[in-house]
Amino acid sequence: MREISLPDTQATTALGRALARVLRAGDCVLLEGDLGAGKTTLARALLRALCGDAEMEVPSPSYTLVQVYDAPVGEVAHFDLWRLDGPEGVHELGWDDAREGIVLVEWPQRLGTLAPPDALRITMAPDATGGRIARLEGWDTRLAQSAVFGTGDASWA
């Protein structure tokens, strides 16, 4: 597990851009945390970086449940499963096809057993100073081998 301090929105955005550099087709990123924890801010930064457009509009998929983006690395699906009761409706949202590209999932606990065991799990939580802490679980070797994350928690910025 890797823990990263995110003192402000700019740090959360920098983390999203850094993560975009290591993603490839077939990857799944699970974003956990309470309402207001910074999941959507992180997802927006990651999507903008993947698509190469820092000003791209990235609406929250809270009501549509999934937004799909065409990025140079392939199709990226951003799921927000807050309104689902469980994994039953995920297939109807195109889950199986989306897994061929890159998938970002907010509220991944709604996936149940559909959550890929090889996913990068990021848990966002507030810290005592008003910032956030991001806990990254999974991909330890992959992140360590990346020039972006390779030399310690400060190297991603």
UniProtKB/TrEMBL annotation:
GO terms for cellular component: cytoplasm. InterPro entries: P-loop_NTPase, T6A_TsaE. It is found in: Cytoplasm. GO terms for molecular function: ATP binding; metal ion binding; transferase activity. GO terms for biological process: tRNA threonylcarbamoyladenosine modification. It comes from the Bacteria. The keyword Transferase applies. Keywords: ATP-binding, Cytoplasm, Magnesium, Metal-binding, Nucleotide-binding, Transferase, tRNA processing. SUPFAM superfamilies: P-loop containing nucleoside triphosphate hydrolases. Belongs to the TsaE family. This is tRNA threonylcarbamoyladenosine biosynthesis protein TsaE. It comes from Komagataeibacter swingsii.
